[in-house]
Structure formats: structure tokens, C-alpha cells
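User: quick one, fold this
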Amino acid sequence: PMLKTIGLYLNTLANNGVPAKNRHLAAVFHQGGGDAVLLNDVYKARHKVDNPNIAVLKELHDAGVELRVCGQGLMGKNLTPAQVLPGVQADLWAMVTMVNLQSRGYVRVG
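Assistant:
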């Protein structure tokens, strides 16, 4: 559900004249949500269906949204960064990512 919300927020900013250079959004995937960023074959092996998030994640990435996934969460599921979609940054730990983003002025939503 948050992917749709991120897209709506991004579109609201764009439709109200906020220039792309001033739209700074990041999506951090961790715990159960980390599967959303898996390559289709990896996702399908785990869930028996195609990854329904691929198109929207590509659109968000192409629109400049930073996509990050928790490396600890990947390891906990016996996955590697090579198994996530292109454009998704595998970080050390979602907690470190959140602290770093907040220190850069990002605000946590959701």
C-alpha cells in the first residue's frame, strides 16, 4: 500500500509545481516488505506468483525515488543483494539507513 502512497505524494508534488530537483523521496524496505524488491524469479520461487511490484518500483526509481532494502533482512532470508531488482540499493541495515536519511533532513512517514 505504501508504494501507491509514494506515487501519489510524488505526483502531488509534481502537479503543484515542485521541481524534480526539489523532490527527495526514499523508500526503505525491511522485514516482510523486503520481498517487494526481489527479482521476479526469486519472488516467484518464494510466493508462487510474479512480483506485482516491479512496474511501480521502476516508475518510482525513474522518477528519482531512492529505493533501499535492509541487508540484514536479506541475509535473514538467505538472500543476496544480487537478488534484488536493478535500481534498489542493498544497505547494511534499515536502522542505519533510517538514521542516515534523517540526518540528511528526510522525515519518516509510515
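User: anything notable?
Assistant: Strands lie at 26-29, 66-70, 88-91.
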